[in-house]
Amino acid sequence: MELFDSYSKGLIVHHWDTDGICSAGMLLSELKGKEVDNISPGIGNYYLTKGEIEIIKDRGYEFIAIVDVCIPKENILKLKNSVNSKIFIFDHHLQENIKEVEHMNPVSEGKSQESFPSTSWVLSQWVGVNLLAILGAVGDKEGWIKENELIYPEIEKFMGAHSVDFKQLLRMVKLIDSSHKVMDKEGVESAVRFVTENRNSPEKILGHQPWHQNSKRIRTEIDRQMSNEIIEDGNVLLLNILTPLNIISTITRKLAWKNPQKMVVVVNRGFFWNRNQIYVRGIKAQRLIKIARERGYSAGGKRGVAGVVLPNTKTDDFLSIVKNI
Hints:
By secondary structure, the chain is α/β, with parallel strands linked by helices. It has helices at residues 18-29, 50-58, 73-82, 119-127, 131-141, 152-162, 166-181, 185-197, 202-206, 209-226, 248-258, 285-294, 315-324; strands at residues 9-14, 35-39, 63-67, 86-90, 102-104, 230-233, 236-241, 263-268, 275-281, 298-302, 305-311. It is globular.
């Protein structure tokens, strides 16, 4: 990519899910011959800690590319003021366009999320549509991507040309996602190199045994947590879970898929020792994210989807806001 032609050493900071991993892989494959590291923020944190910023600062990167991590503006500016690096952001989430850095997010510039369902699809503007671009989009939208009349024909075209079906795409996504769901940060980071090296080989991605081992553990835990009581309050379905695994988004998707007319709210009270996760589908996400950030909570999302991390002492009060938004 011409954006990076004048740099030789850099860092990719990426989200821990399939879109983040595959987007980082797409970028990494374009940076051949350069010295490039990749890291994920701590799983569950949508920001860089002071310690992470200090480590980045000490390594003298010429550029930092932040990929699919909806990091708050103040955290980005703190990073910018701490390092002597050019900062690029590639994203598709609902967020303010940060003018102080090179921010490539068509959605923050007013374009539709239907046109850019994933960060991998944003990057495809530079590198073209390939397996990693498609896995990123399927990872973020799963079966809902079939309803996207702009994007799904491209996916169908790819499947026909490469003898891959949609079930296999979904299976690859679940396998790639498995590292972050079992809280294996090193596994997330090594996954970027693996998908980059095997970006033309669905068979190797489907056959990666460590991911199959993760997936078995995840399936068992999801089934256990989804057996909890679902509380129905008008148009809202609320499920409380208690798990150290990062499976809240998966559980919320499953409930939303079965209940498309409902607002689905899942609260994980067992992920952090002093904070809780809230994940919501079927909501005015931009408004909820704004309210959460005004209260100092970590929040991000896309149209109809919002995730919030907040102190456990504030959770029940915030749930009242969610239900009435």
